[in-house]
Amino acid sequence: MSSISKPAPSSSGRKCKGKGHERREEILSVAQRLFVQEGYARTTIRRIASELGLCSTVLYLYFPDKGAILEEICASTFAKLARECRELRASGQDPVANLHAATSGYIRFGLEHPQEYLLTFNQPAQAAQPAKDAEPDNDPGCCAYASFRALVEDVVAAEPTDPAVAIEVLTQCLWAGMHGLIMLQLTKPGFPWAERDELIQKHVTLLCEGLLQSASAKA
Questions:
Q1: What is the DSSP code (8-state) at residue 161?
Q2: Residue 153 and residue 170: Cα distance in Å, rounded?
Q3: Distance between CA atoms of 211 and 96, rounded to whole angstroms?
Q4: Where are the chain's structural domains?
Q5: Domains 21-64 and 73-215 belong to one CATH topology
Q6: Are the beta carbons of 53 and 23 closer than 8 angstroms?
Q7: Using CA atoms, how far apart are residues 146 and 79, in angstroms rounded to an integer?
Q8: Diameter of the chain by CA atoms?
Q9: Can you list the alpha helix ranges (DSSP code H) found in the chain?
């Protein structure tokens, strides 16, 4: 996940010289930065266009409104998280090792890409609602969740577990644990946190061992 590029630094007044796909990516990058720095509610299409050195009408050729820009940023983040899970499952490694790797990777992604993560999970409530006609299989957030859930299912299938174990509950508890550490570190940077790698490693171990214990077959 560390290969994901970070948003371009601020350079107010510059011209957006890209064409097609490149210009679209530049719009997303600048909008992402402004949404985080100035707030989604206060950022307008005109503000984004001004930062790019364009008139507002040009942006409307690519996105109908700022909600569509935010939606694409979130979809991209979810797609990256889902892809990591799929690649781990395809690796043929031990399911427990895959779960450890996915959990660690998720946390590191959130901490190394704070703008993407905060926008995806702290977006306005109205923007967070999926389209009424959206199918779960086509919703980026649902797909990312399903990919992670599949890793939990693999662990449960490979280990001696309680037949009554609730996969959904285990997955959501694990997700909450990962998300909690990310948000605490991003929103409380002044707290005297332990060394990051050690903290992540111990947190992942506690989460995964707790999941295995909760799912284990009753004696």
A1: B
A2: 9
A3: 10
A4: 21-64, 73-215
A5: no
A6: no
A7: 12
A8: 68
A9: 21-38, 45-52, 56-59, 66-90, 95-112, 114-121, 125-128, 140-158, 167-187, 196-215
**Pick from 189, 52, 31: nearest CA to 119:** 31
Cα separation of 134 and 172, whole Å?
22
Q: 161 φ, ψ to 5°? A: -120, 165
Kindly compute the dihedral angle of the four CA atoms of residues 144, 149, 151, 157, in this order, to the nearest 10 degrees: -160
Q: What is the pLDDT of residue 124?
A: 59
The confidence score (pLDDT) of residue 135 equals: 56
- Count other C-beta atoms under 10 Å from residue 20's C-beta: 8
SS3 (DSSP) at 216: strand
Model pLDDT, residue 88: 87
User: How many Cα atoms within 13 Å fall on the side-chain side of residue 154?
Assistant: 22
Give the residue ranges of the chain where pLDDT is below 50: 1-15, 126, 128, 219
List Cβ neighbours of 31 (8 Å cut-off, separation of 6 or more): 43, 48, 66, 69, 70, 73
Calculated CA dihedral for residues 146, 156, 101, 3, nearest 10 degrees? -20
Architecture of the domain whose range is 21-64 = Orthogonal Bundle (1.10)
Q: CATH number of the domain at 73-215, please?
A: 1.10.357.10
Question: Would you say 142 and 136 are in contact if contact means Cβ atoms under 8 Å apart?
Answer: yes
- Residues 102-152: tens digit of each pLDDT: 999 999 999 999 988 988 887 655 454 555 555 556 688 899 999 999 999
Q: pTM here?
A: 0.77
CA distance 27 to 50: 11
